[in-house]
Specification:
The protein is 80% helix and 1% strand. The chain is mostly helical. Strands 1-2 form a two-stranded parallel ribbon. Keywords: Coiled coil.
């Protein structure tokens, strides 16, 4: 059956919200053969998407990166590659796997398996679904299935005195913590493509690499937010664990108090029984001595014996009921202990997965930092050599005497603007480098970066110390002595020179403010 048709929508425009709602309803109410059929359909869809993902090398075959996404979505031979759109938030289209992971279908199926033990056919399907949707390996998934079967056996013996909904909610929360995150997978794919681009473009100028550096920053921020979300889930699981422990302790204290009350009550009844037996002896002795009142005493004795028998029978019934109550409380304590063990195992599995993911993220972040610092070192060294050549050119221009003043001035300003532009690029790149922690006793790349950054101020000082050429005032202020053509050319050139001089002063002031 087509996933879109199963959810009540057309193949080309599946609504994400309706699909999630349909999945939740089917997983919540499916039982027996209907549940097995639903699991089979979901497994087939997940396998098809997994094969397509491995073929295309993209975590989301329906994303815009894949040029065949529209063909896969409309092809009748690939019904499980239908696209789902979130009309409220927008964003990229999602496939069935994304919808399945963001719904509560897996949690509801676990609840159904606890209420009704899984069949042998369902166990194999569940193991394959867990391998596609949960973290961990096959051994952990098999252990998880065994834990679910143990919970189903323990839950069948549970009475109504413990709230079943609370225990089922704890199990659902544990499963949610093990589910794979589609957002984290998309971030991993983005990281992979960015690393490929960085490796392919090692020799590209800084103006193109700055975009890649910005994308790396965005990916780093996304990974940081993902880590914070996972840490929040861990804290929630710990709170739930503490609640379960407190609940178990409160129940144990209640059982102890009940046992104490029953013991005191039984002792009081034994004392009363002894008193009644003593009174009975007194009545028997009085009966033997009071033969004159034999008839009346026999009637009183019969009535007294009947009352005593009723009391003893009543006490025996109460004792049996109390014994049954103690056995029921012990069974409930065993169920609670089994549930607590399941939650602790799940929490340990989540902690191991999180630790492994955190180490991988830290390793990738360190590699990205080293790549960025290496590229920055190369660019700063290149610009440093470029500034040295430009400063030499400025010194040569200032010392030339064989050209006109206007030509020298124009060449000087052009070269000076090039120096200022390169200094700005070096300062911008040094600001990016300073966001990382660079130590003076670090590796060769860090030492080289610190040396290049420290050379910026010396270049500024050297630039300001250069002798600037000046135009002769007579050529500018005496337009009468020149021909009309020369006056027109000088009047056109003069605003450009003033604008260049103003721009030059503003550029130098900007560099001075940035350095301070």
């Amino acid at each position: 059956m087509d996933p879109c048709e199963e959810f009540g929508a057309s193949r080309r425009a599946c609504v994400f919200k309706d699909a999630v709602k349909r999945l939740n309803e089917v997983s919540l109410h499916a039982r027996g053969a209907e549940r097995l059929q639903a699991l089979g359909r979901w497994l087939a869809a997940l396998k098809e998407i997994d094969r397509e993902t491995k073929r295309t090398g993209n975590s989301n075959p329906a994303s815009p990166r894949n040029s065949e996404s529209e063909e896969m979505a409309t092809s009748p031979r690939k019904p499980y590659m239908a696209l789902f759109y979130d009309m409220e938030s927008g964003g990229e289209p999602m496939n069935f796997r994304d919808v399945f992971l963001q719904s509560r279908a897996l949690e509801h199926i676990i609840t159904s398996l606890i209420l009704e033990a899984p069949l042998d056919e369902e166990i194999g399907v569940l193991v394959e679904i867990f391998g596609l949707c949960l973290a961990g390996g096959q051994e952990l998934h098999n252990a998880f299935i065994s834990s679910i079967q143990d919970l189903a056996k323990a839950f069948s013996t549970l009475s109504e005195e413990i709230r079943r909904s609370d225990l089922l909610e704890l199990a659902q929360t544990a499963v949610t913590g093990l589910k794979l995150s589609t957002e984290a997978e998309k971030l991993d794919v983005e990281m992979f493509f960015l690393e490929q681009k960085m490796s392919d473009k090692q020799g590209v100028p800084l103006s193109k690499d700055s975009n890649e550096v910005q994308k790396l920053k965005e990916v780093t921020e996304g990974l940081t937010s993902s880590i914070s979300g996972i840490e929040q889930k861990i804290s929630e699981n710990r709170q739930q664990k503490e609640k379960a422990i407190k609940y178990r302790d409160s129940k144990a204290s209640e059982v102890v108090e009940t046992e104490k009350a029953l013991s005191s009550e039984i002792q009081a009844l034994h004392k009363r029984k002894e008193q009644l037996e003593a009174e009975l002896k007194e009545v028997n002795s009085a009966l033997s001595s009071a033969t004159a009142r034999h008839i009346n005493t026999q009637e009183e004795k019969a009535q007294f014996d009947e009352a005593s028998s009723n009391i003893v029978a009543h006490l025996s019934i109460q004792e049996e009921e109390l014994t049954k109550s103690i056995a029921a409380r012990r069974a409930e304590a065993g169920v609670a202990s089994t549930w607590l063990g399941f939650l602790e195992d799940t929490w340990l599995l989540q902690s191991a997965c999180l630790e492994e993911k955190t180490k991988a993220i830290q390793h990738d972040s360190q590699e990205a930092k080293l790549q960025f610092l290496s590229i920055a070192s190369m660019n700063l060294s290149y610009h440093q050599e470029e500034i040295k050549l430009l400063l030499k050119s400025l010194k040569l221009i200032s010392s030339e005497d064989n050209e006109t003043d206007s030509t020298i001035r124009q060449r000087f300003l052009e070269t000076e603007n090039q120096v200022i532009r390169v200094l700005k690029l070096m300062e911008s790149l040094s600001d990016e480098v300073k966001t990382f922690e660079i130590k003076e006793d670090g590796d060769e790349v860090e030492k080289k970066l610190l040396k290049c950054i420290g050379a910026i101020d010396s270049f500024k000082t050297e630039l300001r110390g250069l002798k600037r050429p000046e135009l002769e005032t007579g050529k500018v202020n005496s337009p009468v002595s020149t021909s009309p053509e020369v006056r027109d050319e000088e009047s056109k050139a003069e605003p450009d020179g003033q604008e260049a001089e103003a721009t030059d002063g503003w550029e130098l002031d900007t560099l001075e403010e940035a350095s301070t």
